[in-house]
Amino acid sequence: MDYFIELFLGGITRGAIYALIALGYTMVYGIIGLINFAHGEIYMIGAFTSFIVATVLSIYGFPLLAIVLIAGVAAVIWSSAYGYTVEKIAYKPLRHAPRLSPLISAIGMSVFLQNYVLLAQTSDFLPFPELIPEFAFMEPVAHIIGSSDIIILITTAVIMIILTVVIKFTRVGKAMRATAQDRTMAMLVGINVNRIISATFIIGSALAAIGGLLIASHVGQINFYIGFLAGIKAFTAAVLGGIGSIPGAVLGSLVLGLTESFATGYVSSDYEDVFAFSLLVLILIFKPSGLLGKAETKKV
Amino acid sequence: MSVFKQGMRGLFISLWFMFLTFPIMVIKVDPIERIVRWRWENCLYIGVGTFLVYFLLQYLLHRKLQSVESNTEKDNEPRESIIHRIIANPQQRNIMVGILLAVAIIFPYFSSSYQTNVMTTALMYVVLGLGLNIVVGMAGLLDLGYVAFYAVGAYTYALLNHHFQLGFWTVLPIGGGLAAIFGIMLGFPVLRLRGDYLAIVTLGFGEIIRLVLENWGEFSKGPSGISNIARPGFFGMEFSLDSAIIYLYYLMILFVIVTIFIVNRLQDSRLGRAWIALREDEIACQAMGIDKRKTKLVAFSLGAFWAGIIGVVFAAKTTFINPASFTFLESAIILAIVVLGGMGSIVGVIFGALVLILLPEYLRALSEYRMLAFGAILVAMMVFRPQGLISNIRRTYRFDKTQSLNVK
Fold first, then answer.
1. CATH class for domain A2-127+141-286?
2. Least C-beta-crowded within 10 Å: which of A131, B181, B259, B376?
3. B74 pLDDT exceeds 50?
4. Domains contained in chain B, CATH given
């Protein structure tokens, strides 16, 4: 039974991290209907920035709490900056192009960013500094759930609540929902659509950066290629929940996290990634609209 | 915009990029030795580089606008490049093809076996590009898992050769056929998906194939791969290493010619026109009575067939394969070839493959930046020239008064 609970909690933790990345996919898709293939790379850059900042600070002997805060803020700032710039360079000029053009451009951006980090830094796996200490009060349940899992769950929950509030009650959130529903109409009622799209990319990238920091300190190592796999998995989660739907992305991530956790725990750990990809292929074939998404009808 | 304003804007953009690239380009940490290296010179390069690129782009944009303005007064004939004019004129085209063929045939006698080998690789990518061009360029289905079919072909030859000692020529059709069957198997359920979902499913499929090859050790020998694969023979003759390279080169020339011939014929056939119509507008196409699913499936399996064939050649050429040769990046390279050359354009794809594969080989200093450039090419082509370097010219009927009078 302990093993089951351990797998269950592990799956929830995984799902929570996927959710942070999947939200970026789903928000961008909801607003401009684009699969932002470079989103995984934004997450990777977030992880790398926090790695660099945290290591530099720890070499210069900063206290742990300051390291965590500064690394987190730096990751959010730079990831958002990258997300914003990528949108301006690779997607904005293609707003009215055929559907496949921005996707190809996004793939190009993804390959470019991967190799940019590879050339500027290194291709080796780098050890990520331990940012989350083992808490003493966690001792009795430490064999089931680690301290970092708890931190991840709490952080994710807080971020989700903040995001919900932002989208439901602020002006930006309202404008985002309006733009997602009907871009032309949003323009007519005086919403600066380009600015809203930029805001979406920035928020999505910031979430991915936090995900990057959390997962990197959880796993303990990073390299330039982590964005690809994480991106695909988060995308799977977003599609599973119904792409474009924000609660759907969270639900899909949890389902994916649990599936992976149980599959690796009970079946085989060699095929961990195969499960995720098979799930993706199966959903897209049988229920492309996902768990909470609406089926898209096309008018001629 | 005044020059001063533009200068300020350029300055602002380069400052932004200096800020953007700061943590990744400037700081390099060694977490084990606990050393920080500050590479400030990179910051300077980025700033100056961005400034220059910005002005180059502004200048190009300016010229483009000017030429558009001066062109609007003239007639609206599409401007054709030299290459298009040569293709349009059958006499010049034949001369060009003859010269190219002659150069291709005498090439191995003037160059080292290393260079012949590089050329063979480039020719393989020409065929791969042409195969993917059927799927992406003509039928408009973005296939990001193309390398999976390539892997199927390569592993078919490697395994059949390893276990049953089957020869190259026996396996060649089997590899192609098996890849085509995989294409149909994947295509059946997924082809009703919309364009971007299809792209992601094919990507997932490509990764599944690679991961299975990597993890199913009893079947594929896992990451260590299969070695000692036989080189192709010629009616039972075996070759030495040098002559095998030259033999493979001529084989690839033959493959390229056959592929060009078939693809060219396909393009103008009923099927090819159905693909192009399907790419432009699916609904209108179905209304005209084209079986959407069947047409797409044929495109998919034909593309897979070529990938399978080249997979067999690849296994025979390198005599060693492992799953690391079939990553997503390989698919991205082939896609970059098709996009750079011009989607749907045969001459363009050939040109794209030769440029993208040969350039990094001969400019050794640049080979490190190869994938960086491929990514940048995909973005830049989509933004500035979506039709590719040598775009495909649609066949159009022109109404000619003098000729129409003769028709009775």
1. mainly alpha
2. B181
3. no
4. 3-71 (no CATH), 80-110 (no CATH), 117-384 (1.10.3470)
